[in-house]
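Students often ask why we bother encoding 3D structure as a string. The short answer is that it lets us treat folding as translation between two languages. Here is a chain of 437 residues written in the first language.
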Amino acid sequence: MAQRLGAKQLHREQIEAYQVLRLRETVRWARLHSAFYRERLADLSEDDLRSLHDLPRLPFTSADDLRRNPLRFLCISQGEVARVMTLQTSGTTGAPKRLYFTAEDQERTSDFFQHGMSTLAGPRDRVLSLLPGGCPGSQGELLATGLRRLGAVGISHGPVQNVEHTLEVMAREGVDVLVGLPVQILALARHGPGRGAPRGVVLCSDHAPEAIRRALRRLWDCEVYTHYGMTEMGLGGGVECQAHFGYHLRELDLYFEIIDPHTGEPVREGETGEVVFTTLSRRGMPLIRYRTGDRSRFLPASCPCGTVLKSLEKVSSRINGHIALACGEVLTMADLDEALFPLEGLLDFDAVFSRAGEIDLLRLGVYAQDEHGDGLAVAVRRALQAIPALRTASDEGRLKLSIGLQTKGAAPARGTAKRAIVVERNSFPSWDRSAAG
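And here it is in the second language, the structure alphabet:
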């Protein structure tokens, strides 16, 4: 980043001056070349942005805006697009989101991966990627490019389809570092705690529960890092350093804000709210004040590593992921994650919530190791009852739990959809109810 700014040493003032300049250029470019922003910013211009404090004058961009007509965001001809990525959000039945990236956009992502991975990988280290790859511009291929520049050996594998096969690959290849989805890496660690254990792990592409981090450290005695990003960001947003203080952000390519999700106003420094970002270096499909739906905050203290970059607290939940129970309590996916992932033999789970009258219905589909299947349903029910919100609902007679077990050896690959509680209103899900209690 210092090299990009032409500085010997990075200073906060330089970063923020650069961000103001690029924000003004982004607004000007988008108004001139994007049909969407030409309308959305009709009464505004780059002259309205004299400092970072002026950014809240601009309107937000939402995921629904992208779904309606993504081509209206394009600022270049389709012939200049190097990669198109299509996303179907978990629980959404409408049109998918479609993102367009230029070769320059992808180059910046590879550069981010190169420097982000340098925290735990170096020359000749062997890095196994469990990310989708195999075609130009895919997440796995961009990571492989960054690793080559680092001097590391990138081994493309793709999402885990067979745990035993992947463990054999890890042992045969002498893997030093593993990169992939949290639940898939957990499945590997629980099936083979002493087989080909890597020195380091990077959890990405989904929220990483603290319970999974603890399990990996215990089973493999490895260092565990987390990465924060989404396709809309260009796949890379921020990554932890060795201090594990929070995500250090990609501040020359993305400008981050934290807002009150209800009022849209910026929150005070250190307060929790919704993560919003604006692209600073994208000419093909810029996004201005894009609402991620993720809940986090800027950490007010400085990271022990001494960086001048902002630190974003680990993202563990979604703004719309808070389920209001009939008893008045609130349940989140993070509550379920921290209660269930410590259970031995549990690999992953799906959660679906619905309501019948005044009774909440929570159905869990649990993926388990074969040898733990018999007793795991009891352990899951006990862990659920220990969650305060569910215990209150149960005590008041307003909760019905149903647990189904599958012992296939590994949870299925989820693609780009993040894990979340699926809400089905006014109807009980069509599962086998034999385990209902």
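Translate back mentally: The domain at 107-228 is CATH 3.40.50.12780 (Rossmann fold). Keep this in mind for the problem set.
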